[in-house]
Predict the structure.
Amino acid sequence: MGKFLALFNGAADEADKDELSAQQQAEFLDAWAAWAQADHGALVDPGAPLNAKKRVTARGVEDFVDATTGYEAGSHDEAVRIFAGHPHLRLFEGNSIAVVECR
């Protein structure tokens, strides 16, 4: 059995995030909490920002920053079902979640 990762890709930059009102932020956090509670048992890892990122190229190594966050689920279909309703998808136009298998 493989590992299945849900990788969150954020379309917003810092300026977009700063434009969220306190009410919008609170509504998102409430929606996220409801989502997390509904399927908490189906996730192998409840997720975390992916930090300390390094990009390796022929020219060398450099630090980089992006908005990707990762979660781990037990099956591909289960991960797709869980993340299809995630509030991240409605927060900013262009946000997406890639569900991939690690072999």
